[in-house]
Amino acid sequence: MTTGDSHPRPQTLGELRHSTWSQARIARRSVRDEMRENLLAKLEQRQTLFPGIVGYEDTVVPQLVNGILSRHTMILLGLRGQAKSRILRSLVDLLDEAIPMIAGCEINDNPYAPLCRACRELVAEHGDATPIAWLPRERRYVEKLATPDVTIADMIGDVDPIRAARRGLELSNELTIHYGLLPRANRGIFAINELPDLAGKIQVGLFNIMQEGDVQIKGYPVRLTLDVAMVFSANPEDYTARGKIITPLKDRIGSEIRTHYPVDLAHGIAITQQEAWIRRYQNGRLTIPDFIQEVVEQIAFVARESKHVDRRSGVSQRLPISCLENVVSNAERRAVLNREATIVPRPCDVYAALPSITGKMELEYEGELKGGEAIALTLIKEAIARVYSARLAGAPVKETVAWFDAGAAVKIADTTGAAEALKFLRKVPGLPELTALLGVPETAEAGLTVSACEFILEGLHVQQKIDRNEQRGYVGAPKAERKPREEGQGFPQGGRRRGYN
After folding, report:
1. For 137-263, where are the alpha helices, taking DSSP H only?
2. Under DSSP, is residue 188 helix (H, G, I), strand (E, B) or coil?
């Protein structure tokens, strides 16, 4: 094995003392200093600090940088689906590629300053012949999801009577300790998700070892001056005086950083495209129209504003991610059934993705009464209305609407192939010409044209300019419904849209 500078890695303490890995570099620098120095180097070289984190460049990232440079213990406060865990796990990239440790040590002891008694005795006995192992950065990150049943033994450690019996030791002997997660994270990063869910006595144990470096195991005082960078995450609702966090622990956390959902549609789309499993075909067979992506992303934005959705719980970014995956899958199923060479999602595929939406929302009481599926349908329609208004406001649709008002209808199933659907849609006056306003020219591939045409018809429907039902498809709107749609106005509830036969 070699180090980053291509020199063989020392295998004994003596070799380590005479290597480029000097005592000053290894023994004198804490984990927080190591992260700080590597972060400064990345900043100086203009490197990307947190790859894959989108939309936090001007908000969360600067606060994270300041917290690391200040060598603070940090906590990320945010609702679900705001990349808190991903940020915590990405901190490992600020660690060195590998560091030396005493081989076989449970708590990754520094060869120059071992903490545990077993390693101290090993160095005293073997001296420069003490074997050295190299700890990669990936193994220097320990994460624990806080739950009420976590014990002090899980976090700190406990006396192991079996080990004591086998070695003939008294239980008060330090060699009988079985170390928990926190000591095993020594010389690394220890992350706890949902910190307030820990029992109060566990929180006391954490801040005691953070501040004084000592802990009691079964009444036996143990001094553990651990070198650990501790980071946490929590829901803002729990991290309050009325919540389950104890004040002394809260006081010892240096930086409190608030995360958030995407602030604009572009950031949301970028995150969804990055995370969703939509790169299923490498040959360009799949094409997702931009207006479909906007509709899917807008569903999450609408849900976060809806009075029927619990805002304290939040609407995770996983909603548009899962929704887009279902949208693509429904389009994929249609393409396979019709033996089509290309896969192009349509608005009807968004309605088919209801199962990926209903499970991502916690509803308020009124929303529960209406039902998750009815609320999801309303969100989809509102999302389509917003995208339609943004993309086609003022579009010349009078000719198209008049054609439907004259008694004509278009009936297309969500399984209808693109070529067959296009035959029906081209009969609608003015419709093919309107697709150009969506960036889809009349000469575009059939699947794209059908998707654009259906989006226009669906937009006219949610604005109550034409009607749609299961039996007849798109038809002229009843006169009683022909009125301008007000901002935030609800939509008539109907059954699930299954297609038009």
Report:
1. 152-155, 161-167, 181-184, 200-211, 247-251
2. strand
In this structure, the answer to whether residues 291 and 234 fall within a common structural domain is: no
Q: 7 in a domain, yes or no?
A: no
Quick one: DSSP state of residue 104? T
Residues 308 and 230 in one domain: no
Q: Give CA–CA dist 50/42, Å, rounded.
A: 11
Q: How far is CA 321 from CA 77, 276, 325, 387, 465, in A?
A: 22, 5, 6, 18, 31
Q: Are residues 237 and 337 in the same domain?
A: no
Task: State the residue for tokens 């995370």.
Answer: 275
How far is CA 88 from its chain centroid?
11
Last residue of a domain, one of 258, 283, 308: 258
User: Average pLDDT, stretch 345-368?
Assistant: 93
Instruction: Determine the Cα–Cα distance for residues 355 and 170; give it in Å rounded to an integer.
Output: 59
The answer on 283 and 254 residing in a single domain is no
Instruction: Work out how many domains the chain is built from and give that number.
Output: 2
Of the three residues 213, 229, 258, the one that is the final residue of a domain is: 258
Number of helices (H), then strands (E), in the chain: 22, 13
Reduced to 3 states (helix: H, G, I; strand: E, B; else coil), residue 234 is strand
- Amino acid in position 228: V
Its domain, for residue 452, covers: 265-481
What is the rounded CA–CA span in Å between residue 250 and residue 257? Answer: 13
Strands 157-159, 214-217: pairing is: unpaired
Does residue 438 sit within a domain? yes
Nearest to 255 by CA among 466, 69, 10, 395: 69
Distance of alpha carbon 407 from alpha carbon 459, whole angstroms: 19
* Residues 311 and 201 both lie in one domain: no
Is the pLDDT confidence value at 469 over 50? yes
97 plus 186 within the same structural domain: yes
Whether 223 is covered by a domain: the verdict is yes
Contact partners, residue 103, CB within 8 Å, separation at least 6? 131, 132, 133
How many Cα atoms occupy the beta-carbon half-sphere of 475 within 13 Å? 11
In terms of DSSP H, where are the helices of 223-340? 247-251, 265-275, 290-305, 318-337
Q: For 90-122, what is each residue's pLDDT tens digit?
A: 999 999 999 999 999 989 999 988 888 889 889
Residue 158: beta bridge partners? 178
| pLDDT tens figures, 422-458 | 999 989 998 878 999 999 987 899 999 999 999 999 9
Pairing mode, strands 214-217 and 141-145: unpaired
